[in-house]
C-alpha cells in the first residue's frame, strides 16, 4: 500500500515565496529610503532635493540641503532634544583657578542634598587622561589644575538646578602654584613648567628647502616682522551635550553631537577601562562644529555618573563652559624674515612660530604640522626654513579649528607681502602674481604641484571685487 | 504653580516649579523642542518664540509670566496646507545650515513681517540683531526674509495655492524648475 503512494506523482502546493533575507539585503533602489523621509504629520509638497535614481543637473541650481526642511519646521532632533526616561542632569564644577594643586575636596554636603544621585571626583576615574595624540588631559583634574576650565568634580541630580546647587556645595581647597600665561614666556628656561619636566615645548616641526642663508645673502632687501593672531572660540550655537546610558549587560550607549565617533569610542574605552566593543556612540545632528566637536569632553564623566546612579545622565555645557572648558584656536606668534630681489621675487623666507597650546595637547600636533607646511604661502620660494613649536601655558586648551593653523600663517605671510609690495612700489596683486605657484612648482615640502589654479583664482577675484576701480 | 498658555492654538497647562522658564516649559513639559537652548542667558536668540505678537527670548521669560498669553513656536507655523513662506524660502535659499539657530531666526522674522509686511534691509537686520548664527553669515537669511515678504504680499502664497489645488502627496514628482 505504502509503495503505491510512493510511486504516485507528488503535487506541490503553489505558493508565493517571500524573498530570503539575502535577496532583500541586496542594494535595491526601491528599498532605499528617500534622501528625506516624508514628514509624517504634514502633507507638504515634496522636498526640493534630488530623489534617489533621479537625474538632475547641478550647475545653475540653488544648492539645497536635504535636512533643511526639518530644520525649518523645528523637527530636527538635536542632542538636547533627546530625553530618556529617568534621565539625570550632570554638572561639572570648574576649578576657576589657573594653576593649583587640589589639597582637599569635600563632596559630603553635595552628596547629602536631596535629588543628588551621584558625585564623581578625578581619583575615581579608571584612566584619568585622554587626547587624540598625547594623552595628557585629565577628565577631572587630580590633583593638579592646569587651567581655570579644568573640571574638579561632577554631580548628577534629578534636575539641572539641583545639580547646579550641588556643585556649589562642593568644597575644594587649593594650594596655588605658579603659572605661565604667555607663549613666549613659556619658552624661557626659568618659566613654570605646566606638565613638569624641563620644558613647556611639547611638539616641534622643521621644514627646510634650499639654503636660506645663501638666499638672504643674494637678496636685494630683507624684510622682518612679527605677526600675532589671538585664540578664537568656535562658539557653535549648540553647546556640548551628551547622554550616557548603560544597559543591564554592562554596555554603554553615548548619544553625542560629536564629529569623530570612532575616536570617541577609543578614548572612552581607554578612560573607562572597558573594551571598545561595549561602547556604542550615536552621533546626533550637529548644531555647529567648526572643529570644536572632534574629541570627547565630558562623556566618560557622564558614563561614570550614570553607572553610579544607575540611570541615564545628560550633561550640557553652559555658554561659559563652552568658552573656558572646550578648546579654542591656537594663538600664534610668528616671526617672518623674507629676502626679495629688486623685481619683487621672493628668494628666501625664514619662519619661526610659537603656538600657544594652552594646558593640554589636543590637536596641537596636527595644527602645528599644517601651519608649518603652509607657512611659506602659495609662493614659489627656492630657499625656505619653517620652524614651529607648541608650548604649554596655563590657559584654555587650544585644539582643532577650521583650517588647523592655515588661517593664522595666511594672515602673517599676506601681511608681509603687502608690506614688501608697498616698500618696493609694486602693485600688491602684481607682486603676488610674480611669485605664486604655477604648474610644476615645487612647494616648501618638495611636492611638485599640478592643476595649479592660484593665478586664475586671484585674477577672478580681482575682477569681482573691482580692484581696477580702487581709489 | 499652574501655568496655562495657548500654544500654537491649543490651550495647555502644566504644574511647574516657579523658577521654570518659558523655554523649559515648552521644551520639557510640552515637548515642543523647536526652540533651542543656545546660551540660556538671552544672548543668542535660538529660543525665540512669539508671545502675544512679540518675539521674545523664551529663556528670559518665566513660565509664570507667560500665563494666560498666546505663544507661537516654530511647530505652529506650517499648516496642513503647506510650509510658511519663511520656512519655504529659508529652505530654498540655503539660509539654514546646521539649523540650530533656524527656528529662532524664523520666529523673529515672522514677528517682523507680522508688524511690517514689507521691511527694508535695515529693518530686517535690526529684527535679527538678537539672533546669532555661526554658519551662514546672515546674508541668505536677509534675502530670504525679503523673498518671504514678497510671497506673503502676492496673492499666490503657497498656502493659498495649496487650497486651490489638492496637496500633492509627499514624494510625488519634483516641481518643474
Automatic annotation (TrEMBL), chain A:
GO molecular function, one term: iron ion binding
Domain Aldehyde oxidase/xanthine dehydrogenase a/b hammerhead as annotated: residue spans: 73-178
SMART domains in the cross-refs: Ald_Xan_dh_C
Family matches, as SUPFAM superfamilies: CO dehydrogenase molybdoprotein N-domain-like, Molybdenum cofactor-binding domain
Superkingdom as given in the UniProt entry: Bacteria
UniProt xrefs under Pfam families: Ald_Xan_dh_C (PF01315), MoCoBD_1 (PF02738)
Sections of the chain in a coiled coil: none
InterPro entries cross-referenced by the UniProt entry: Ald_Oxase/Xan_DH_a/b, Ald_Oxase/Xan_DH_a/b_sf, Ald_Oxase/xanthine_DH-like, AldOxase/xan_DH_MoCoBD1, AldOxase/xan_DH_Mopterin-bd_sf
Residues that span the membrane, as ranges: none
The protein's name: Aldehyde oxidase/xanthine dehydrogenase a/b hammerhead domain-containing protein
Native species: Rhodoplanes roseus
TrEMBL record, chain B:
UniProt entry keywords in alphabetical sequence: 2Fe-2S, Iron, Iron-sulfur, Metal-binding, Oxidoreductase
Gene Ontology MF, one: 2 iron, 2 sulfur cluster binding
Domain 2Fe-2S ferredoxin-type: 1-77
Pfam (any one): Fer2
Top-level taxon: Bacteria
InterPro entries: 2Fe-2S-bd, 2Fe-2S-bd_dom_sf, 2Fe-2S_ferredoxin-like_sf, 2Fe-2S_ferredoxin-type, 2Fe2S_fd_BS, Beta-grasp_dom_sf, Diverse_Oxidoreductases
PANTHER family for this protein: OXIDOREDUCTASE WITH IRON-SULFUR SUBUNIT
Entry protein name: (2Fe-2S)-binding protein
Amino acid at each position: 500500500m505504502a509503495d503505491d503512494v510512493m510511486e504516485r506523482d507528488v503535487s506541490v502546493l503553489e505558493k508565493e515565496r517571500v524573498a530570503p533575507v539575502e535577496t532583500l539585503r541586496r542594494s535595491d533602489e526601491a528599498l532605499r529610503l528617500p534622501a528625506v523621509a516624508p514628514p509624517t504629520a504634514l502633507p507638504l509638497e515634496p522636498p526640493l532635493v534630488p530623489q534617489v535614481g533621479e537625474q538632475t543637473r547641478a550647475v545653475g541650481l540653488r544648492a539645497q540641503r536635504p535636512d533643511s526642511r526639518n530644520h525649518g519646521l523645528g523637527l530636527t532632533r538635536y542632542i538636547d532634544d533627546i530625553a530618556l526616561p529617568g534621565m539625570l542632569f550632570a554638572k561639572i564644577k570648574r576649578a576657576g583657578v589657573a594653576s593649583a594643586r587640589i589639597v582637599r575636596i569635600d563632596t559630603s554636603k553635595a552628596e547629602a542634598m536631596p535629588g543628588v544621585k551621584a558625585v564623581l571626583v578625578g581619583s575615581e576615574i579608571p584612566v584619568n587622561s585622554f587626547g587624540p595624540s598625547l594623552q595628557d588631559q585629565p577628565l577631572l583634574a587630580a590633583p593638579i589644575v592646569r587651567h581655570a576650565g579644568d573640571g574638579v568634580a561632577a554631580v548628577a541630580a534629578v534636575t539641572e538646578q539641583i545639580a547646579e546647587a550641588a556643585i556649589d556645595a562642593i568644597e575644594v581647597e587649593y594650594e596655588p602654584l605658579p603659572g605661565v600665561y604667555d607663549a613666549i614666556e613659556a619658552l624661557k628656561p626659568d618659566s613654570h613648567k605646566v606638565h613638569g619636566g624641563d620644558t613647556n615645548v611639547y611638539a616641534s616641526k622643521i621644514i627646510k628647502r634650499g639654503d636660506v642663508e645663501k638666499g638672504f645673502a643674494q637678496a636685494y632687501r630683507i624684510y622682518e616682522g612679527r605677526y600675532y593672531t589671538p585664540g578664537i572660540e568656535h562658539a557653535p550655537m549648540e553647546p556640548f551635550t551628551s547622554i550616557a546610558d548603560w544597559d543591564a549587560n554592562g554596555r554603554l550607549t553615548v548619544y553625542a553631537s560629536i564629529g569623530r565617533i570612532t575616536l570617541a569610542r577609543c578614548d572612552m574605552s581607554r578612560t573607562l577601562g572597558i573594551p571598545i566593543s561595549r561602547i556604542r556612540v550615536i552621533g546626533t545632528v550637529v548644531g555647529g562644529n567648526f572643529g570644536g566637536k572632534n574629541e570627547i569632553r565630558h562623556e566618560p564623566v557622564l558614563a561614570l555618573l550614570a553607572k553610579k546612579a544607575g540611570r541615564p545622565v545628560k550633561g550640557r555645557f553652559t555658554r561659559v563652559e563652552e568658552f573656558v572648558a572646550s578648546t579654542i584656536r591656537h594663538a600664534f606668534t610668528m616671526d617672518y624674515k623674507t629676502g626679495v630681489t629688486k623685481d619683487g621675487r621672493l628668494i628666501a623666507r625664514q619662519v619661526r612660530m610659537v603656538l600657544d597650546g594652552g594646558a593640554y595637547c589636543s590637536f596641537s600636533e596636527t595644527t602645528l604640522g599644517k601651519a608649518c607646511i603652509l607657512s611659506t604661502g602659495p609662493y614659489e620660494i627656492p630657499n625656505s626654513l619653517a620652524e614651529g613649536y607648541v608650548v604649554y601655558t596655563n590657559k584654555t586648551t587650544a585644539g582643532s579649528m577650521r583650517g588647523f593653523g592655515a588661517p593664522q600663517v595666511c594672515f602673517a605671510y599676506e601681511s608681509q607681502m603687502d608690506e614688501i609690495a608697498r616698500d618696493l612700489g609694486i602693485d600688491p596683486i602684481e607682486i603676488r602674481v610674480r611669485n605664486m605657484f604655477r604648474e610644476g612648482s615645487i612647494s616648501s615640502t618638495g611636492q611638485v604641484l599640478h592643476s595649479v589654479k592660484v593665478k586664475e583664482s586671484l585674477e577672478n577675484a580681482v575682477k569681482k571685487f573691482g580692484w581696477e576701480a580702487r581709489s | 504653580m499652574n501655568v496655562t498658555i495657548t500654544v500654537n492654538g491649543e490651550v495647555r497647562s502644566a504644574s511647574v516649579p516657579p523658577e521654570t522658564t518659558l523655554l523649559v516649559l515648552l521644551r520639557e513639559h510640552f515637548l515642543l523642542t523647536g526652540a533651542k537652548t543656545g546660551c540660556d542667558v538671552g544672548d543668542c536668540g535660538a529660543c525665540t518664540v512669539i508671545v502675544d505678537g512679540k518675539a521674545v527670548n523664551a529663556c528670559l521669560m518665566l513660565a509664570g509670566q507667560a500665563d494666560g498669553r498666546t505663544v507661537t513656536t516654530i511647530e505652529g507655523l506650517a499648516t496642513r496646507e503647506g510650509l510658511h513662506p519663511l520656512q519655504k524660502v529659508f529652505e530654498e535659499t540655503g539660509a539654514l545650515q546646521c539649523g540650530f539657530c533656524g527656528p529662532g531666526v524664523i520666529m523673529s522674522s515672522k514677528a517682523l513681517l507680522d508688524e511690517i509686511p514689507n521691511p527694508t534691509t535695515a529693518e530686517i537686520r535690526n529684527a535679527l540683531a538678537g539672533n546669532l548664527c555661526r554658519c551662514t553669515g546672515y546674508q541668505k537669511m536677509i534675502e530670504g526674509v525679503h523673498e518671504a515678504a514678497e510671497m506673503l504680499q502676492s496673492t499666490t502664497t503657497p498656502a493659498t495655492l495649496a487650497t486651490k489645488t489638492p496637496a500633492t502627496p509627499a514624494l510625488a514628482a519634483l516641481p518643474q524648475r
